[in-house]
Task: inverse folding
């Protein structure tokens, strides 16, 4: 075991070159941004005295960071759980390691149970974080049942190979949608995942509205607001559509907004404050900026500059800054996209985008 530091917190973890679920204490440093976003989302939520549920807590870093980085008024209690052996003893040692005050220690209730049993026995959470190793499917139904009206549900999926089209049969089996295997695959996979979770919500007459969502590294992540409303649940289902490309149908997928610009704005402002304290990484700040830019453009899908160059039989690709400037000069919206290093999101029609591209190549 060695001590790691993330944000405000320390934890004893086992370091391995390859992270897997069999580790005695599960900690993945790549998921730092995932946890940064949890802190920022809850810091800016218009609610205090939150009952927070962390059913798959692993190293405990997420819970430790929340209790140290959020204002004391934000948290009523954090129910923290992991079914690994000796979790209570291990987490207690990390509380000692972080030298928490009695007031902060008392925020925690620690469990050592199956995640679904934990959720269903402690219902009416204001915030639940489903962050598994692999698919979130085994935990969705109990999580949806256990989040209160106007509460928040965060879900992570790390089985990107299924959602992004490498294993289409697995995607259909697990997420009830046919994936797309081209430059849009990560956005498409994220929208398949959102739809699947929304369908679980609809079974319980709950509308799950995405407030923040993104795809990064080996995972996809969504923060939902849960609303107990049959009418809104029906409205959500009405925004699930198939996508047709070259005569073939894919999906269905969620065709609504991936992000709420107002929520992103608040999180960006908070990130500037917390990054100065060293609590939030620069990587998280940059991702928030990217999400805000492309959310301003909106819509589904984006163009790939390299694919466009190939289609036009161009020997080179114009600089991205020039493409964006040319689109803006014509009164069109345009931005880079976090889904792809070579992608440009714009409200330009395909013909308009290709004309801009060709003009820059002259």
Result:
């Amino acid at each position: 075991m060695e001590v790691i530091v993330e944000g405000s917190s320390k934890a004893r973890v086992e370091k391995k070159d390859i992270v897997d679920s069999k580790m005695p204490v599960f900690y993945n440093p790549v998921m730092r941004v995932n946890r940064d976003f949890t802190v920022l989302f809850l810091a800016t939520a218009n609610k205090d005295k939150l009952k927070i549920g962390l059913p798959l807590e692993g190293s405990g870093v997420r819970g430790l960071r929340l209790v140290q980085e959020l204002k004391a008024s934000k948290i009523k209690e954090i129910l923290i759980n992991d079914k690994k052996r000796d979790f209570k003893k291990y987490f207690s040692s990390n509380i000692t390691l972080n030298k928490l005050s009695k007031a902060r220690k008392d925020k925690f209730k620690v469990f050592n149970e199956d995640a679904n049993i934990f959720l269903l026995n402690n219902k009416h959470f204001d915030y639940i974080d489903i962050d598994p190793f692999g698919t979130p499917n085994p935990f969705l139904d109990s999580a949806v049942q256990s989040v209160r009206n106007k509460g928040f549900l965060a879900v992570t999926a790390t089985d990107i190979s299924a959602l992004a089209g490498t294993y289409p049969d697995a995607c259909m089996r697990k997420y009830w949608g046919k994936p797309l295997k081209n430059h849009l695959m990560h956005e498409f996979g994220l929208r398949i995942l959102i739809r699947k979770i929304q369908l679980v919500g609809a079974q319980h007459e709950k509308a799950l509205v995405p407030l923040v969502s993104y795809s990064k590294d080996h995972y996809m992540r969504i923060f939902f607001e849960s609303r107990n409303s049959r009418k809104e649940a029906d409205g959500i289902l009405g925004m699930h559509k198939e996508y047709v490309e070259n005569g073939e149908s894919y999906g269905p997928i969620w065709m609504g907004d991936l992000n709420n610009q107002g929520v992103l704005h608040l999180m960006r402002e908070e990130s500037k404050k917390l990054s100065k304290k060293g609590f939030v990484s620069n990587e998280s700040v940059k991702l928030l900026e990217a999400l805000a830019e492309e959310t301003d453009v909106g819509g589904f899908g984006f163009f790939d500059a390299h694919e466009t160059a190939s289609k036009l039989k161009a020997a080179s690709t114009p600089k991205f800054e020039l493409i964006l400037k040319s689109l803006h000069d014509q009164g069109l919206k345009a931005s880079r996209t976090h889904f792809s290093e070579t992608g440009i999101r714009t409200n330009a029609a395909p013909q308009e985008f290709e004309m801009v591209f060709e003009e820059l190549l002259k």
Observations:
- The radius of gyration is 21 Å.
- The chain has two domains: 2-284, 302-361.
- The longest strand covers residues 147-157.
- The chain has a mean pLDDT of 94.
